[in-house]
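#lab-general

N.A. 3:47 PM
ok so I finally got the sequence cleaned up, no stray characters, all 488 residues accounted for. can someone with queue access submit it? mine expired

B.Y. 3:52 PM
send it over

N.A. 3:53 PM
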Amino acid sequence: MFNQSMDSVRDAGDVAGTVLIPMRFVWPYGGRSVFLSGSFTRWSQLLPMSPVEGCPTVFQVIYSLPPGYHQYKFFVDGEWRHDEHQPFVPGEYGIVNTVFLATDPNYIPVLTPDIASGNNMDVDNEQVRLTDGTLSEVLPRISDADVQISCQRISAFLSMHTAYELFPESGKVVALDVDLPVKQAFHILHEQGIFMAPLWDFCKGQFVGVLSALDFILILRELGNHGSNLTEEELETHTVSAWKEGKSYLNRQNNGHGTAFSRPFFIHAGPYDNLKDIAMKIVQKEVSTVPIIHSSSEDGSFPQLLHLASLSGILKCICRYFRNCSSSLPILQLPIGAIPVGTWMPKIGESNRRPLAMLRPSASLASALNLLVQAQVSSIPIVDDNDSLLDVYCRSDITALAKDRAYTHINLDEMTVHQALQLGQDAYSPYELRSQRCQMCLRSDSLHKVMERLANPGVRRLVIVEAGSKRVEGIVSLSDIFKFFLGE
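B.Y. 4:20 PM
back already:
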C-alpha cells in the first residue's frame, strides 16, 4: 500500500513545483478485493486497498495528490462502486466521488513521526490535519462564513416545517395513567419496548407529565438505599402520581441542590409548532422526547396524543431534505473532528475540559446508575483496560431489569455492568439489536455521514473511536448536533 503512495509521489514530483498532499481513501463497506481508481491515475490504474487492522470491512489506501479537484471510484469484487456518504457527481465514468484539496504554498504535508506516536495535530487556517494513530490525511476546511451560512439554512428549514412532518403513516403511542402502580408501569414500559411515556390524569382530563427511564433509575437507587422508606412491596400500591409528588424531595437528597432533574411543567408541543421550536425545547429542557398534543377545543379540553417528537425524527427530516442538495451546505463535508461538537477525551494539559465518563465492565451497576444521574449523561461507554470500546450502558437499559422482576432480587452494589448488559440481551427485540445501540464512527468521518447514522431509529449517539484499536476518543450525540446547528 505504501509503495503505491511513494510511487505516486515520484510520478507527480516530475512536475516542477508540484506540492503533493497525502490523502487517505477509505471504503468502509466490506468486500473481498477493493481497488481505487480516479482522475489522478488517468482512470487507467487500479490501486489496491488494504483492510484496516481490527476492522476487516474497512479498506484504505494512501495516495499523494496535487491540490485541486479530483474524481475517483472504487472497484469492489469486480464491480464499480461509489461511496454514497461522500460528495459525488455524475461524470464521464458514471457516478463518481469527488474531493477538493486546498492550496497552501507554505505547507508541504509529510508523514511525520508524530503520526505514529498518535500525537494530536494542530489545525491551521487553511487545512485540517487528522490522525487515527497510524495514518494522516489533509482535508479542506471551509470558512467561518460558510459555517454560519450552513447553520442558517438548516435553521430556516426547521422554522418552515411543522411537527406534522414527523408523523409516520401508521404507528402507536403509549400513555400511562398517573394512578397506575409504579411496579405495573415499570413492566408496561418493558413489555412495550419503550423507555418513557406521557402521563394522563383522568380527574384533570389532561396530560400532566412523563414517566422516563430516569425515574426508574432513581426508584432502584431508592430501593437499594437501606435507609429508604420505599420498599419493593410498596411498589405494588405506590402510584406514579405519589412517586412524582415525592420526587422533588428525593432529588434534594440525591443531588444536594434538588434542581438538576426537577421539571415542574409538562413539556409538550402542538402539531402546528415548527421543528426549530420543538428541537429547542428538547435541547434546552434536556429531555429525550416531546409529546405532540392537539385539542380541537379552545380551552384545551379533550387533548389527543398524536406523536412523540424526538431529535432523531427531526434530524431524519433534515437529512432527507438536504440529501440531494448537500452542496448548499458545505459544512456537511467537514470531518467531525474539525467541528466543535460532542464530548472528547481531554488532551494532556487540558484540565478545564469536562472528562468523558467511562466504566470498566467489572464496575458495579450502582456506580453506573450513580454516574448516569450525577454526570447528567444518557449513556456511558464500557471499555477495557486499554480504553477500547466494548459496549455502551444507557439510561434506557434500566427497563431490562423489569424482566422476570429481576430488580427485586439483585444487589446494585454486587451486580456488575457486564452482568446487567447480559441480563438485558433478551430484552431487545429483533428491531433494536444491541449492535444498533453500540454505534461507532471515526473522527475523520464527515458530519454528513454522522448525521445520516444518527437519524437511524434506535441510534441516539455515536462513540468516536480510533481506527483499529477502537480506543474511545469521544462521543457525539443527537443533542450535540442540534446544539451546534442552533447555536446553543
